Amino acid sequence: MAYEKLEQLYEGKAKKVFATADPEIVIVSYKDDATAFNGLKKGTIVGKGVINNRMSNHMMRKLEAAGVPTHYVEELSDRETAVKKVSIVPLEVIIRNISAGSFAKRFGVEEGIVFDEPTIEFSYKNDDLGDPLMNAYHAVALKAATWEEIELIKKYAFQVNDLLRGFLKSVGIDLVDFKLEFGKLADGTIVLADEISPDTCRLWDETTHEKLDKDRFRRDLGGAEEAYQEVMRRLMGDAEG
Ligand code: UDP
Asked: Of the candidates 36, 67, 84, which is a domain's last residue?
């Protein structure tokens, strides 16, 4: 099936979304633009769009094969992918295996504490409010999701964690934490949406603990391009995936 881009429906910080002739399919186009701290820091990570597109698709295909429903349909080019049209559930779902980032800050602990069990938290997807932390009761009160949807989202999120951790560990990378977004199809089915990439995951080399993710950009560590390439190379090899 050849999908072609029609009008642009949306432009976000890292992606653009286009309509297609099929009302149930949209095309996502990944940009090299990088933002952090709710858009306050802006820059470019050259080649990021290609890597995030290809890595996210690789992960979505593996998750789908393992029984997690996703929005993925077909990779169209280096930067473009056809996905099922969803309405995004306005919850950012964050799973953590190791302390870092806002967790370390909020609870006053060092980064790098390995948890006995993964944690889950939600934040309300609202840039104007800075994505505030939110619990399931808040989400239901705000009609962001129903209890049934939240239970399903939690189940999928922990399944994704188990699977991703395994895929990454096999190439010498520890999955520290990550953010997922879910969407609803027209019939109400919940599917994994958005992306899984070094923009949305913290990835540390298992031996050197070198950061191989967007923290290189957030924290001005340098070498973001090389880090993204390294993740892609380990997961998918140099040429094909
Ligand atoms: N994350 C994300 N988008 C957001 C917030 C967080 O992709 O808007 C990811 C982030 O890359 C990290 C995880 O979610 O892998 C946990 O982020 P945290 O809450 O520690 O926030 P941060 O320190 O990034 O502000």
From this structure: 84
